[in-house]
Amino acid sequence: MYVLAVTIFSGIMATLMMIGIMEPITRSKLANADMLRAIGSIFTKSYENSLTHGLIAHIASGIFFALFYFLMFNFVLGDK
User: Fold this and answer.
1) Eight-state DSSP code of residue 1
2) How many folded domains does the chain comprise?
3) Run of H or E residues at 60
């Protein structure tokens, strides 16, 4: 149970760090890296209501990838 909680926490933190890195890039106008609104607009079909949906989807995918990597490393390296 502890390993699952740490893996989920790691996925959330990694996703938040990615958002924290991409946000200044978007604000500085170097590139349009606003993935939260891009992902959210897939679900809402509008730019205005997309932030919440994008944040939820982005964090959910971060948790999924953290669990996927944990399972793959555990499968390849085993319990050592």
Assistant:
1) -
2) 1
3) helix 50-77
For residue 3, what are the CA distances in angstroms to 6, 60, 75, 78?
Answer: 5, 18, 15, 14
What amino acid occupies position 69? Answer: Y
Phi, psi angle pair for 33, to nearest 5°: -110, 30
- Considering only CA atoms, which of 34, 54, 29 is closest in space to residue 44? 54
Q: Which domain covers residue 9, as residue numbers?
A: 2-77
* Model confidence pLDDT, tens digit, residues 46-63: 988 899 999 999 999 999
The pLDDT tens digits for 23-35 are: 999 999 888 888 8
* pLDDT value, residue 16: 95
Which of helix, strand or coil describes residue 49? coil
pLDDT confidence of residue 15: 95
